[in-house]
Specification:
- The complex is a heterodimer of chains A (470) and B (262).
- Chain A has 13 helices and 24 strands.
- Chain A is α/β, with parallel strands linked by helices.
- Chain A has 2 domains: 302 residues, no CATH class; 55 residues, no CATH class.
- In chain A, the strands form 3 sheets. In chain A, strands 5, 6, 8, 9, 11, 12, 14, 16, 17, 19, 21 and 23 form a 12-stranded mixed beta sheet that branches.
- In chain A, helix 2 runs antiparallel to helix 3, helix 3 runs antiparallel to helix 10 and helix 12 runs antiparallel to helix 13.
- Chain B starts with 5 loop residues before the first helix and ends with a helix.
- Classes of the chains: A alpha/beta (470), B alpha/beta (262).
- At the A-B interface, helix 11 and helix 12 of A face helix 3 and helix 4 of B.
Chain lengths: 470, 262
C-alpha cells in the first residue's frame, strides 16, 4: 500500500512503530516513552518549544501518582502500556467531505455531521482517532477574522498565539491526566474570536474513537477577545470493544474582558471508554463562561469543568447532567474560584443512576479574601431509579470573604410508583413513563442546548430506559 | 373511524353495559377493603359512589385503573365485555378508561403542552394529536375550564394549586374523550365556582355521548351540578344502598349513620 510505505518513511527508524491495520496510515505501538512523545512532535513538525513542553509533561506524568480520590479501583485498571497513543487515519485535514476517506466519511455521515453543518452550524470539525479529518468554517466568519482550526493547524499557522496561551489555564502539572494530554496531545480545536465579533450560530466539533485500545488526547484552546462571543459544541462517540479506550482531553478557555464563551458537550462514549478530562476557563472583567456538560456514556468519567473568575464582575455557570447505567461511574461536578469582587456563579448538577450505576457530584467553590460581594449558587439533584444504584455528593465551599452570599441546595429523589402510575394511566407504557420522568428531570439542562442536541438527548435517554423494566 | 361502521358498533354496544363490576373483592397489603361489589354502568350514564373516608372509594378507583399495589382476590371488572384485570393501566387507558386522580402527581420538567399531546397520541392516535384540530379542541377545552394559555409551558402538576390540579385532570379528560371516566374526589378542595366549572366539563364530556362516568365523592355538592343517574353508597367495602339522585340528598340531610342503622 502506497500510503503505508510513505508512513514507514515518515516514522523512520522508530522500531516497529506502526502497524498495518484496516484504515490507519500511521499507528504507534502500544505504550508510552519519551521516544514516542518526541516522535509524535517530530511527525507533526512542531516547534522546539512544543517538543520541550511535551517531554516535560511526559516526565511529570510518569512521576505523578494516580489521584487518591474518585473511583480509585477503576483508575487502577487503566493499563497505560496497552494503549495506542497516536493513530493517523487520514493524511491531512480536508475541507471538502468528498475528500475524506470513504470509511471515515461514512462514519460521520451516519452521525449526521454534514447535514447538521448545512443546517445550523457556523463551522464544523471532525476528529477521527488522533487527528482532525475534516474542517470547515463559514466564509463570513473567516472574513471577520474568526480563526477556527484544528489544534495542529493552529500551532503551525499561529504559533505565537498558541505559545502565549497554551498551558496558561491548565498547566501540564495540574494533574496526572493533564500531564498525559500535554505529552501526547493531537487534534482538538483552536479558536480565536476577534474583538467585538459575535459568532451567532454554534461551531461544532465531533470526536470519534474507532480503533481498539485507542487513546484520544485532543487539546482545545478557545480565546474570545474583548466583547466577543462564541458557542462551541462538542459531541463524542466510540464503538464498543471488549477492551478499554482512554479519552483524556484538555480544554482551555480564555474569556477576555466583556466576552462570552459557552461550551456545550454531549459525551456519549461507549461504556468501555475512560473519560478523564480537564476543562478550565479564565474569565476576565465582566466576561462570562458557561459550561453545559452532559455525560451519558463512558465507563468512568472524571470531569469537573472549572472557571477562574479573575476579573471583576465576571460570571460563571456550570450546568451538567450525568447518567450512570450498569457498570458506569460518572464522577462529575464543577469548580469555581472567585478571585475578584462582584463575581457571580451558578452550578446546577443533575444526575441519574440506574441498574447499579453510580453518579457522584464533586464540586468546589472558593471565594478569596479579597473578593467582595460575590454571589454563588449551587444546586445538585440526584434521581435514583432502582435499589442497587448509587448517588454521592461531595460539595466543598471555601469562603474566605464574609460579604459573599452563598446558596446551596441538594436533593436525592427516587421515581415513585405513584408518579409512574399517573403517567401510565394516560396511556404511556412503563418505559415511556420513565423516559418522561427522566427527560423532565434533565429538562433544565436540555433547554440550554441547541434544539437538535436537545432532541438527540431525549431520544438517547428514551433508548436507555428501554428494556429497563423487569 | 369509518363512518359507516359507527352505528353498527354503537348498536352492538348498547346491549352490553359500559362497565360491569362483578363481586369484586380487592385490597392492599393483604387487607381486604372491597368485599364483594357489584355495579353496572350503561352507555351515557353517570353513576356516583358516595361514602365516608375509609369506605373503599379510592380502592375502587385504583382497581379500575389498575394500580399495581392493589390486589384483586375475586370477581371481575369488565369494560364493554372485556375484562380489564389482566391489562396494565396504560392498556386500560388505551381502551378508554380514564381516572381523574384525587392526588395528581407532579412531574417536574415535563411540560403540560407536550404531555397532553403525547397522551392524546397514545390514547387517541397520532392523527388526533396533530395540527389545527388538536389545537382547536385544546383551546376550547381550556377556555371552558378557565385555564390560561401560560399553563401550557408549566410542568405537569408542579407547583399547581389544588384547584389547578383538578382543572388539569378535567382538561385531560376532555381531550382524551374516554369511554369511562372515573373521578376520584375531584370536588374535594374546590370552591363553589371550581365545582361548577369542573361539573360543566364532566357534563360536556359525557352527557349526550355513549360514554359513562363514575363519580366518587364524599359530598353531594358536585352531584347538584352533575345529575347522576344512579347513586351508590359504599360502607365498609360493600354497596349498602343504591338509588336515584334523591339518595344523595337524603344522605346530605341524615348522614351516613342513618344507613348503618337500617
Amino acid at each position: 500500500m502506497e500510503e503505508n510505505s510513505d508512513a514507514r518513511g515518515a516514522v523512520g527508524e522508530y522500531k516497529a512503530g506502526w502497524h498495518d491495520p484496516e484504515n490507519s496510515t500511521i499507528r504507534f505501538d502500544f505504550g508510552l516513552s519519551e521516544e514516542v512523545v518526541r516522535e509524535i512532535s517530530r511527525l507533526k513538525n512542531e516547534p522546539q518549544w512544543m517538543t520541550e513542553i511535551r517531554v516535560k509533561a511526559f516526565k511529570h506524568f510518569i512521576q505523578r501518582p494516580m489521584p487518591t480520590w474518585g473511583n480509585m479501583s477503576m483508575l487502577e485498571e487503566i493499563d497505560f502500556d496497552n494503549i495506542c497513543y497516536f493513530l493517523r487515519s487520514s493524511d491531512s485535514t480536508k475541507n471538502d467531505w468528498d475528500d475524506v476517506p470513504d470509511d471515515i466519511r461514512n462514519t460521520f455521515e451516519r452521525l449526521g455531521i454534514p447535514e447538521a453543518e448545512q443546517k445550523w452550524l457556523s463551522g464544523v470539525s471532525a476528529q477521527y482517532e488522533s487527528e482532525t479529518v475534516y474542517h470547515s468554517i463559514r466564509e463570513d466568519l473567516e472574513r471577520q477574522g474568526v480563526i477556527f482550526l484544528d489544534m495542529d493547524s493552529g500551532l503551525s499557522e499561529y504559533p505565537e498565539i498558541v505559545k502565549k496561551w497554551f498551558c496558561s489555564v491548565v498547566p501540564y502539572s495540574d494533574n496526572k491526566f493533564s500531564a498525559l494530554n500535554t505529552a501526547v496531545w493531537s487534534g482538538g480545536s483552536f479558536i480565536y474570536v476577534p474583538e467585538g465579533v459575535h459568532v451567532e450560530m454554534p461551531v461544532q466539533a465531533y470526536f470519534r474513537i474507532n480503533a481498539k485500545n485507542m487513546g484520544q488526547f485532543e487539546r482545545t484552546l478557545i480565546i474570545a477577545d474583548k466583547g466577543s462571543s462564541i458557542h462551541y459544541v462538542e459531541g463524542c462517540t466510540a464503538p464498543t470493544y471488549s477492551t478499554d479506550s482512554l479519552h483524556s482531553a484538555v480544554v482551555e478557555l480564555i474569556a477576555l474582558p466583556g466576552s462570552h464563551i459557552r461550551y456545550s458537550t454531549i459525551q456519549n462514549w461507549s461504556s468501555n471508554v475512560y473519560n478523564l478530562v480537564t476543562k478550565r476557563g479564565i474569565a476576565h472583567e465582566k466576561a462570562k463562561i458557561e459550561w453545559v456538560d452532559g455525560n451519558i456514556g463512558s465507563k468512568l468519567t472524571m470531569k469537573y469543568p472549572a472557571v477562574i473568575l479573575k476579573g471583576e464582575g465576571s460570571h460563571a455557570e456550570v450546568i451538567s447532567v450525568a447518567y450512570s447505567g450498569e457498570g458506569q461511574h460518572q464522577d462529575a461536578g464543577a469548580k469555581i474560584h472567585h478571585l475578584a469582587s462582584n463575581t457571580t456563579s451558578k452550578i446546577l448538577s443533575k444526575s441519574i443512576s440506574k441498574n447499579g450505576g453510580r453518579g457522584s457530584y464533586r464540586g468546589m467553590v472558593t471565594v478569596s479574601p479579597k473578593a467582595n460581594n460575590c454571589k454563588l449558587n449551587v444546586v445538585c439533584d440526584a434521581l435514583i431509579l432502582d435499589e442497587g444504584s448509587r448517588s454521592d455528593t461531595y460539595p466543598t465551599m471555601e469562603v474566605a470573604n464574609p460579604t459573599a452570599r452563598c446558596e446551596h441546595e441538594a436533593s436525592v429523589s427516587k421515581v415513585s410508583d405513584e408518579q409512574l402510575f399517573y403517567l401510565m394511566s394516560r396511556g404511556h407504557t412503563e418505559e415511556e413513563s420513565l423516559a418522561m420522568i427522566v427527560n423532565g428531570f434533565f429538562e433544565p439542562f436540555t433547554r440550554e442546548l441547541p434544539m437538535e442536541y436537545a432532541v438527540e438527548l431525549n431520544q438517547l435517554m428514551a433508548l436507555e430506559m428501554e428494556g429497563s423494566i423487569g | 373511524m369509518n363512518t359507516q361502521l359507527v352505528p353498527l358498533i354503537l348498536r352492538d354496544n348498547l346491549r352490553l353495559p359500559l362497565l360491569e363490576i362483578k363481586d369484586l373483592h380487592a385490597g392492599i397489603d393483604g387487607n381486604e377493603i372491597l368485599k364483594g361489589i357489584n355495579l353496572k354502568i350503561g352507555p351515557g350514564e353517570i353513576h356516583a359512589i358516595m361514602g365516608r373516608n375509609g369506605s373503599g372509594k379510592t380502592t375502587a378507583a385504583n382497581v379500575i385503573m389498575g394500580h399495581p399495589d392493589f390486589e384483586v382476590a375475586e370477581g371481575d371488572v369488565i369494560l364493554e365485555g372485556e375484562s380489564l384485570l389482566e391489562m396494565e393501566s396504560w392498556e386500560r387507558a388505551r381502551k378508554g378508561v380514564f381516572l381523574s386522580f384525587q392526588y395528581p402527581q407532579a412531574v417536574p420538567g415535563l411540560q403540560v403542552g407536550n404531555f397532553l399531546r403525547k397522551s392524546v397520541a397514545s390514547i387517541r392516535g397520532e392523527e388526533e394529536a396533530k395540527g389545527a384540530a388538536f389545537r382547536e379542541k385544546l383551546t376550547m377545552a381550556m377556555e371552558s375550564l378557565d385555564i390560561p394559555r401560560t399553563f401550557m409551558s408549566r410542568y405537569v402538576n408542579d407547583g399547581f394549586s389544588g384547584g389547578e390540579k383538578k382543572r388539569f385532570e378535567i382538561l385531560q379528560m376532555m381531550l382524551l374523550s374516554p369511554r369511562l371516566a372515573v373521578l376520584d374526589e375531584t370536588d374535594s378542595g374546590l370552591d363553589i365556582d371550581g365545582i361548577r366549572t369542573v361539573s360543566e366539563g364532566v357534563n360536556a364530556a359525557i352527557r349526550g355521548t355513549d360514554s359513562g362516568a363514575l363519580i366518587i365523592t364524599h359530598y353531594s355538592r358536585i352531584l347538584e351540578h352533575v345529575q347522576p343517574d344512579m347513586v351508590h353508597v359504599l360502607l365498609d367495602g360493600k354497596i349498602v344502598s343504591s338509588g336515584g339522585p334523591e339518595l344523595a340528598t337524603k344522605l346530605e340531610e341524615r348522614g351516613y349513620e342513618w344507613l348503618k342503622q337500617e
